[in-house]
Every structure is written in C-alpha cells, then in structure tokens.
Amino acid sequence: MGNQASKIVDKAKDRSNDRKSRHPNRALSVKSSSAASTSEQPPLPSKRNFADTTFQAVPPNLKPSRSQKTNKKGVVIDQEDFKEIDRSQRQHYVLKSIRKTNHWVPYTRDGVILDIGTGHGDWAYEVASTYPKSQIIGLDLNPPHAPVTIQNNLKFKHVDITQRWDIEDNSVDFVFQRDMNRVLLKSDWDHILREMYRVTQPGGVLEILESDLFHHNSGPVQAHADEFYKAQCEHIGRDCTLADHLAADLTNIGFINVQQKSLDIPVGEWPSDPNLKQIGFNNLELQRSKLRSLRSAYVEGMGLSADDYDAASKLILSEYEEYQGYTKWVCWTAQKPS
Known about the structure:
By secondary structure, the protein is α/β, with parallel strands linked by helices. 39% of the residues lie in helices and 21% in strands. It is built from nine helices and ten strands. The strands form two sheets. Strands 1-9-10-8-7-4-5-6 form an eight-stranded mixed β-sheet, with helices on both faces. The chain has a two-stranded antiparallel ribbon with strand order 2-3. Helix 2 (7-13) runs antiparallel to helix 6 (220-236), helix 3 packs antiparallel against helix 8 (274-302) and helix 8 (274-302) runs antiparallel to helix 9 (306-323). It is globular, with a radius of gyration of 20 Å.
C-alpha cells in the first residue's frame, strides 16, 4: 500500500516534463435541472456571480464526526479531533459563502428541521439562530456535547443513520444532509433516502449537498492522488457516481419537484472576481486543512512515509493556483407529496 501511495510523489518529480497549458480565467458555473431533464444548461456568463442562481420551484475512511475520549474530568479532544473540527468549520463557511445562505430549498414554516450527520453542529447551530421558532434536531453517531448556553430550540441525538432513526413518521418539515457521501457506503443510501421520506411530513422539503469527492483542473500530483483515492473508495464501497443517479433515486422513493444543481468552487486566488478570489483563498485553506486531517490515515494507516506525504501535500497546494483548480459540489432539493 505504501509503495502504491508513494507514486503520488514520483509523479510530482516528473511534473516539469508533463505540464498542462494554463487555462484562461474561466467562468465557474451553477447548473440546475429537474429530475426529468437530461440536458445541461450552458455555463453562466463570466461577469455574472455564479452563486446567485436560485432554484425555480444536489479513501481513507474519515468518521462522520469527532472521535471522543473521556476521563473523570469530562471530554478530552485529541489532536486528530482538532484537525477534523478545523476542517469541518472551514468547509461550513466556504459553502455558506459561495451559496450566500445555509440552504437553498424554500423553508417558511416554524416547524422541525432535521440535520442528518450533523458532525460538529456548525450548520445546526446557525440554523437554530436563524429560525428561533423552529425545533432543530441534529443526528450523528458522535453528536456534539452541547454547552449549556446553546439555543433552547436545538438538540442532538446519538443515532446511527444507517439504522432506523429515532424520529416519528411524518414529523419533520425540513430534512437536511451535507457531506456524508465521504463516509457512507453505496449500500447505505437506499435506507437513508427511505428514512428521509418516512420522517418528512407531507409537503415537507429535503436538501442534500454533497461533494463529488474529487478535484477538477487538477495538476499531475493531485490527479494521481485522486486516482489513488478513487481506488480506495471503490474498494471500500463508497459511491463515486452519486451525482449521476441520486435525482432519479429520490424520485423513485416518492419525492417530487426534484431539482439538481452543480456548484464549482475555486481553489486558490486565481479567479478575477474579487468575491470568488476570497472564496478561493478560503477553499485553499480548507484543502490544506483536509490534507492535515488525512495525514495520519495515509501515514499510519497506509504506510506512506511522513516525508513523502508532506512533500506531496506541498506540491498539491501549489498546483491549485497553477492549474486553476476547483472542487465541485452537487445539491438536490425535493418535496414529499402533500
């Protein structure tokens, strides 16, 4: 495993002989479609802020949230947990900045909001403040230990989302899930979608936001790292093609008004638009945080040398600017029939 992973560094050594031509500043895009549509909309014009479009009616085995060790004095968060907390918070604010909101699906009720795989609760905390008359419930295998001073309309439940949820039928107005495909297996998705449908009340809404797990406009080191990561995902049983079929899956479960939108997020300060430049800087720091978070999985779990991993990480970070790299997220919204 270590020899295979070290090819990432070997690829970097030949980078000067395998350079791609630089791309001109490109217009990143948001693309939306209904579940029944098979045609893609063209990219938005470069002068338009691609994050402004709204809906008309989408390796190494990281844990869904932090692992925790306890002692007689309470909860102790180790160094790996701090890395994951840092990654989680950076990702939350990158996604919020690019979307200019915490959710795209229309929500106007003072009802129950369910956050699936809440992790450290970044999204749940903010939504609880935004909707003080709503009840927010965060589900996670390792939910946060909520401080006494948090909003009284927010609570967390210890739930394995791959099993039946401790939530009543037809009781939730808005179901939200984000960034769970990196820890779920293909075999988990059918159960989770059916649970979403079960707990959502008639007329209630759903939003799922997931990364496609890879990088785009990649340099040679990042491209090789993605190939290695994809092989690991396929070996584990993770779904690398979720964006190709989730809209149809939601429709087959019974949801209606299914909409899908793809979102390109720059990595680095290469965009000419000042707002995208700032978002790109923040996304670069997020990628740096992810690399720190993954370090022990590759070094301790896969046998790659620490020096090789650090060298590859440094080269990957430099490639984002050179090749104008970006990450892609896909958002799905849907509704349960009334």
